[in-house]
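Chain and conformation:
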Amino acid sequence: MTTPLDPEMFDPVCPSDLSPIRIGDKWAGMIVRCLERGPRRFSELRVPLRGITAKALTKSLRTLERDGLIKRTSHPEPVRRVEYGLTPLGRSLLQPMAAACAWAQEHWEELLDAREASAHG
C-alpha cells in the first residue's frame, strides 16, 4: 500500500508558474513529483493538486503518457481502477527536476523581484 499523498505537498504561496524552468504544462512537473513514490489513481492526484480541474488533469496525464513519461494501467478486477505511474523515462526526469527546484529555491527572491519589477513596468 502506498502512503497517501500529502495535501500540502505543494506550497500555495510558491506557485510552479514562478519558476522559469518548466516541464511540459503548468501541472506536469507536479504530477511527476506526485508519482515519484509509485503509481497513483486520478483521485489521489487531485489531493495535492487542489487547483487543477478534472479536464486539465486528464489533458496533462494524456500529454505525459503521449511523451512516454507516464504509463496508464487499467486493473479490471476485483474493482475496475486506473493508475498512473512513471516510466523509466519519466523517472529519469526526477534528478534534473530536483536540480531545477534547488536552483529556483536559491534564486527565489531574485525571481520575485524580477516579476514584481516587470509588473510595474
In short: The first helix runs from residue 28 to 34. The mean pLDDT is 87.
